[in-house]
Inverse folding.
């Protein structure tokens, strides 16, 4: 086997190794200077963080700092994204900012006599300033001591080299970065490293290591001296979520670090703060009288009573159709982030308001005026199973496409038009600008929406900035593509009120399993135009396909109602873009999406994304886009990639709400692989109300 083949095979085995639930051995909430779980200082270990944990770590010593976001993707798999800042590394920059990604996989867990073994890639898709690969073993001795030994390449093979496994290019300040340099992995000089950590008590711990990092680039630039490979650290646990540390590095530098941890599984506020649901209404055993539905006045009274009853649980009645034995109700859930909870509360209310003769109850969930899922129950099952496990109710529930029912309810009288408005504060951020890692503006935003018929939604928002430093944003226009996103800095340098968006959207159902959307207007900060979409998604399926087409014009930089020329210094912005998309729920909390098509700059390619989604609504994911443009055409970063988060507000406050906040972090925002941002895309709208998603949160059905 050739050296190249063996490297690829070793990496493939590491990433494809079967992932199963493992005991929580060799877990830690302490991180090293690189922000990855480790009781050492610079060197990695085979330790892992608790499953699902997010770490945000800051480390600093003279002339150098690192800010790292680390996610424990699986019990054995860790991923990190890092921004490192080094002063005076090169004459071209007073401070050189470097972005990097890490992956680490534990091949074997610790046994009684054997250590845990992990393999890692450090800065594997960056400029390689921090690049290195390693294989490391860690063994616990008793409950307090952990001992580590490993072998490293790249930066981790630069001190005390034992030999070489081939040639490896060094760090190039002029490199675009961002490519998967597979041919360089586990190449070059290699060296041994090791260390130990000791837990003095529940709060205080110590670490010592022999480092194989010679800090060649920093020494060459005269930033500091490397007098010793021995490093020392002390760590203190302030609370479960905050850790402080201090370290002595290279025999010459003293530094400090702080680490904040957060686990989506552990809510800061206990759930269930909402009012308790009403009990299920149990009918008497006597035979119910029939014929009541023949009198329209009875139906009117019932409709009014059901509407008022659902209002108490903040659920909107959209439609109602009644017969002597069947009730079909359509609702709009604006409150509960778990669709199962809205469904359960609706059914409880209906058992207390419907005539005794009604045995079959159907509830249709409505999103933006279109029906997306109908759940049917026998009323006698609800009466029988109220105090049984929620899984028993799920077993008897029937999920169907609403268009398959001939008795789909008509809209209740007076339902439309509907008008809602909000005024709220906002914070607008820019990360990893050329000269500033974080920029932000704060202000006030007014939002409004007007629904004047089923499926018709007019909405808009206006922002008024109050203060901040977004005026300092400096985007490098090194892309050779039309400036579809690198012109964003000119939109951000605006201290006047701006129209964020102003759109009219129509949502519709052309046939069973099909959903449609057409949106026209000022779609986002930069673009106005028309966006049309069609989605195929059966109610009970984990698979979906979609197609989207957009016809766009760039907006004026003042974000008023004007448009600007499509001609930019690097080319003309095309009007047409669009994608074909495939979505699949992989199970076990993982979801993937693939988009193939034409991007804003006219480049063609594909975006692949993978998200881990928690039952409480948390989502953490990563994405990458490759198109038919070269790295030099794309500019710094070589291709579009990043990580994203979506956090449900209900998780933070302990009360049900559908509001979320999200963030996308990119090493570089360039013009390649860019898409228009359109609110109300169909898949996210429809999926949350379909059977697979509702089943995940079914534990809230009776709550």
């Amino acid at each position: 086997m050739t050296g190249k083949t063996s490297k690829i095979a070793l990496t493939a085995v590491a990433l494809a190794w079967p992932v199963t639930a493992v005991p929580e051995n060799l877990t830690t909430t302490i991180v090293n200077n690189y922000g990855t779980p480790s009781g050492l200082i610079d060197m990695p270990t085979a330790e892992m963080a608790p499953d699902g944990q997010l770490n945000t770590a800051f480390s600093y010593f003279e002339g150098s700092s690192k800010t790292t976001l680390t996610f424990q993707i699986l019990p054995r798999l860790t991923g990190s994204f890092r921004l490192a800042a080094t002063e005076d590394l090169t004459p071209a920059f007073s401070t050189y900012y470097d972005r990097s990604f890490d992956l680490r996989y534990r091949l074997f867990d610790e046994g009684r006599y054997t250590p845990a073994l992990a393999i890692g890639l450090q800065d594997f898709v960056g400029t390689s300033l921090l690049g290195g690969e390693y294989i490391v073993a860690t063994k616990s001795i008793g409950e307090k001591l952990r001992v580590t030994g490993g072998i490293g390449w790249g930066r981790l093979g630069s001190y005390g080299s034992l030999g070489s496994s081939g040639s490896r290019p060094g760090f190039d300040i002029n490199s675009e970065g961002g490519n998967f340099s597979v041919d360089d992995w586990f190449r070059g000089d290699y060296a041994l490293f090791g260390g130990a950590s000791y837990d003095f008590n529940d709060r205080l711990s110590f670490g010592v290591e022999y480092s194989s990092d010679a800090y060649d680039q920093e020494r060459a630039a005269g930033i500091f001296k490397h007098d010793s490979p021995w490093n020392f650290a002390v760590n203190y646990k302030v609370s479960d979520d905050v850790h402080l540390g201090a370290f002595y590095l290279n025999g010459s530098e003293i530094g400090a670090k702080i680490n904040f941890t957060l686990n989506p599984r552990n809510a800061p506020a206990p759930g269930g703060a909402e009012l308790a649901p009403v009990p299920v209404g149990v009918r008497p055993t006597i035979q119910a009288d029939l014929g009541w539905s023949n009198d329209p006045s009875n139906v009117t009274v019932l409709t009014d009573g059901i509407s008022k009853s659902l209002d108490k649980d903040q659920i909107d009645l959209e439609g109602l159709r009644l017969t002597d034995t069947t009730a079909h109700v359509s609702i709009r859930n604006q409150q509960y982030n778990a669709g199962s909870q809205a469904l359960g509360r609706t059914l409880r209310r209906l058992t207390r308001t419907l005539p005794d003769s009604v045995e079959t109850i159907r509830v249709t969930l409505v999103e933006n005026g279109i029906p997306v899922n109908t759940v049917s129950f026998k009323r006698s099952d609800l009466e029988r199973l109220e105090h049984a496990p929620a899984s028993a109710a799920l077993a008897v529930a029937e999920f169907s496409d609403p268009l398959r029912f001939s008795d789909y309810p008509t809209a209740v009288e007076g339902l439309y038009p509907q008008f809602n408005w909000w005024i709220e504060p906002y914070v607008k951020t820019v990360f990893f600008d050329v000269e500033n890692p974080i920029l932000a503006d704060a202000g006030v935003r007014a939002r409004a929406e007007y629904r004047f018929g089923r499926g018709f939604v007019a909405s808009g928002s206006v922002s008024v900035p109050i203060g901040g430093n977004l005026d300092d944003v400096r985007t490098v226009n090194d892309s050779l593509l039309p400036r579809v996103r690198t012109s964003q800095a000119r939109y951000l340098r605006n201290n006047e009120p701006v129209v964020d968006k102003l759109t009219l959207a129509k949502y519709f159902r052309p046939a069973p399993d099909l959903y449609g959307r057409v949106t026209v207007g000022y779609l986002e900060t930069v673009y106005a135009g028309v966006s049309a979409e069609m989605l195929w998604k059966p109610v009970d399926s984990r698979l979906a396909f979609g197609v989207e087409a957009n016809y766009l014009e760039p907006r004026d930089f003042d974000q008023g109602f004007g448009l600007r020329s499509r001609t930019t210094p690097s080319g003309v912005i095309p009007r047409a873009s669009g994608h074909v998309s495939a979505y699949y729920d992989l199970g076990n909390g993982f979801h993937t999406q693939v988009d193939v098509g034409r991007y804003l700059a006219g480049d063609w390619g594909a975006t692949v994304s993978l998200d881990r989604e928690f039952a409480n609504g948390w989502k953490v994911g990563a994405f990458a886009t490759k198109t038919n443009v070269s790295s030099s055409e794309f500019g710094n970063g070589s291709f579009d990639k990043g990580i994203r988060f979506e956090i449900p507000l209900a998780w933070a406050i302990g009360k049900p709400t559908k509001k979320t906040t999200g963030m996308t972090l990119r090493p570089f925002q360039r013009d390649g692989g860019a898409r228009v941002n359109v609110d109300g895309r169909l898949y996210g709208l429809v999926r949350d109300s379909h059977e697979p998603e509702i089943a995940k949160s079914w534990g809230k059905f009776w709550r």
Notes: Residues 203 and 237 are 5 Å apart (CA to CA). The two ends are 59 Å apart (CA to CA).
